[in-house]
Structures are given as C-alpha cells and as structure tokens.
Amino acid sequence: MDEPLSKDTERWTGKIPVTAHDWTHVRGWVTREAAELKYVGEDLISSPYRSRFWQGATIVPRVLFFMEQQDAGPLGLGSGRIRVRSTRSSTEKKPWKDLSDQEGVVEKQFVRPVLLGESVLPYRLLTPRKAVLPVEGSNTLMDGGHEHIDRYPDLAKWWRGAEELWLENRSSERLTLLDQLEFRRKLSMQLPGTPLRVVYGASGMHVSAVLVDTPNVVIEHGLYWGTVKSRDEGMYLCAILNTPALTEVVRPLMSYGKDERHVDKAVWQLPIPEFDPANPGHQRLAELGAAEAARIATSQCPGCRGAGRPGPPASGVSSRTRSHHQASGAYGTNAAHAPGANVRRGPSVFLESRT
Question: What is the mean pLDDT of residues 192-198?
Fold first, then answer.
C-alpha cells in the first residue's frame, strides 16, 4: 500500500525587487523556513448528515424526458392517457438542441413531477417540472426490452423512440438511456419516495433549502436530498442551511464554477449535529424554521408551488433566526464567526451544539 505524501514542506517568503533577474540576486531577498501543508477542511469534524444526503438523478438530455401536457383534441384520449410534447430550454447543447420536439401520448402514471436546481428557494418550492420516467409501480425501472413495458403501449412507443434518439446522438457507447437515468443508482435510491425530505441546491451563490413533503416528486442532479424523521428535524435543517452566515462559513470549502460556487456536500464538512428533539436549542431552531416557512408562504410569488406565493431573496432569513443562531452558538464560539462578520479566516470556523 502506498504511503501518503508527507505534509512536511518548505515555505519561501519575501518581496523580490524587479531588478532581480536570476537566483544570485533573488536568494538574498527570500526567507526559507520549515512548514507543514494544511488542507482546506481537514481540521473539521464532518456532520453525521453527510452520509444521509445524496445527489439527485441525472435526467438528461432533457428533450427526451421533460415534457408539458398538450390538449387532448376534440375526441379525447381515453382514461389515464395524456398527450405530451418536449419542454425545450435555451441551455440545451448540441446535438440535443438540434433535435425536433418529441410528441406523443403516454399513460399518465409515467409522468412524474421533478424538482430541478432552479426549483428551490429558501423554504419554498417553485412549481415542479414534469418528465416521462419509465417507473412501474413504486420502484420498477423499465427499458425498451423490459418484459413489462408492452403492458403500456404508449410508454413503450415513447421510450423506444427516446432510446433510438439516444443511440444515434450519444457521445459514448458506454451507457444506455436507462443507464444514464440510473447512473450511480441516483434514481432508484429515491424509489419509493419517502414522506419527508430536505432538499438543497448543489450549486449557487447561496445555500437554499426546503422541506419536501410530496413522496412522488423526483429530485434531479442539480439538488441534494436527504430523508428526515420528522417535520421538526426538517425545519431544524432548513433553519441552519438557509441562514446567510452558513453560506459565508462554508464558502472557503466550496469549489468554483464559472458564475457560481459548487455547494455539493461541502456544508456537511461543518459539524452540524444530528437533530435531538430533547435539545432545547435544536427545538428552538426547528420552531424558527417553521415560523420562517410560514412567513414566506404568505408572500406573493408567480411560479411558486401552491397559490403562487414567493420565496424570499436568495439570502433572506429573518434577523431573529440569525440572532438565535448566534446566541445558541450555532456559528461557533468566536465572535468573528457571527453573522455579518468576516468569516473568511479559514476552515477552523464550525458549527457546534449547545445544551
């Protein structure tokens, strides 16, 4: 077994004048000293929630899955069948964006609501998208050759057509269309759905989380999800994850994208404790999360799930929630880690639980 690389190193520091062009002139300006390498996050104790959260399913290319319902026509379609057409996006890439819309009829049971990365606001969901997914019953995935698929002639026609387009346009021969959908079991792990899940965005300038109580909803790979045992536990996690100070603390642990940061599981490098209903501080955070969700549910929001009421700004959490996090030690004991303070001091910033 290979030995890990040593952390022993040598640190060079100094200010070199512009007139120094070779080592003979440079070395007099350089101070050399023994040092030890430090890795971001290595001194943090991971949260027990790290192993309980998973990335959503890879439901791409979207033109083969995502759809919107069309008018059934003057003659109708019969019970349990709907006419559908591909939902297109300006973010589609070649060759998929050059394909024509997929149109057809499918059995309604195979049209599932799907949450995307852009579906989640702090404490609030936008209306889910819809996708055709070949899931029979609670957890049976079918491809075009599955022994059950011909029981559903409309789905069989749609799915086999999608498989044909996939084979003609895929960039690699490694995966079938069902393999792509089920990559690393990211779909089947969600089946059958559970009553309560906390969901947060995989990327963005701010961490945004919401409690999802619809078991039938499928989570797409732009989100991470984890099952919680109670609504109180869900509100406890939402209260922590949606707090702007949490984003500030975890930013040094995130990797960068072009226009945003990749949150992924970086939040669980902080020692966020598992919810304890007997802990007054945990219960208080759950109460504050529930109050914040109720407050947001009364605001107006075009496109939000339900009566069209919106979420808050991306960083919006009330001052009372921030104050309680600070008072209860949820940002750590150092005053420099309080909301609004400069928390870019390195990975030693962490959350802790107080009884």
Answer: 96
Rg (CA), the chain: 25
Stretch 278-306: mean pLDDT: 89
- Strands 111-115, 218-219: pairing kind: parallel
Strand partners for 35: 9
**pLDDT tens-digit profile of 117-164?**
999 999 999 999 999 999 999 999 999 999 999 999 999 999 999 999
Short-list 129, 130, 125, CA closest to 307: 125
Distance CA 350, CA 178 (A): 41
In this predicted model, which residue has the larger pLDDT, 320 or 267? 267
Give, in degrees to the nearest 5, the angle at Cα 184 between 183 and 190.
Answer: 90
87, 193 Cβ separation under 8 angstroms: no
Rounded Cα distance between 341 and 179, Å, is 46
Give the CA angle between residues 335, 341, 347 to the nearest 5°. 75
Residue 319 makes CB contacts below 8 A (sequence gap 6+) with: none
Q: Which residues contact 349 (CB under 8 A, 6 or more apart)?
A: 249, 270, 331, 332, 334, 337, 343
- What is the secondary structure of 88-105 as a DSSP string? P-TT--TTGGGSPPPEEE
pLDDT of residue 170: 96
